[in-house]
Every structure is written in structure tokens, then in C-alpha cells.
Write a structure and sequence with these properties.
By secondary structure, the chain is an all-beta fold. The chain has a domain of 63 residues. It contains no helices and seven strands. The strands form three sheets. Strands 5-6-7 form a three-stranded antiparallel sheet, with no helix packed on it.
Length: 95
Amino acid sequence: MPLPEGTGTANYTVTSTSGRTASGLSTWQRDGTPPDLEVILPPVDGRNGWYVSEVDLSATATDAISGLASLWQAPMVEQVGSLHPSTSQMGHMLP
């Protein structure tokens, strides 16, 4: 039986062939949805879609179910790109 996203409790009872029983409960947390990431760029200031001056990027991330654990922003390397992974509390990562 697949568990829904969120938190919950499972109650259980087992019975042996001799009629003895045992009961218990277990709680669970499930987050199968990765975090959302948004990278914000300023408007292009040059021709044909090129930036001709320094560009300041910003990023925001959210995780609606388990919450965001971290948002890491790496500096640009050789003007190739930037890495903005975000990690949810449950360990999901967005590259």
C-alpha cells in the first residue's frame, strides 16, 4: 500500500495461530516531491540577448511538504554558469 505524502500513523494488530495478539503503531513522513527553484535574471543590457556588464543572479527555493533544508549558491566559474542546488528536509535535491 503506497503511503500518501505528508505525515501519518499506521496502527496494526497481529494474531498468532494460538490466539495471542500484539498491537502497535508507527508514524511516518513522506515527501516524494522535489523542491521548487526559481532563478531570477535582470533584463539583458546588450544586443542579441547578451549581457555587456556584470550580472547579479538571485535564486529562491521552496519545499511545500518537508520544508527547505538549504539553498547553496556557487560563484560563477569562468563565466560558464552557476550551480544552485536546493535540498529539502527529506533530502530531495534540485541540480
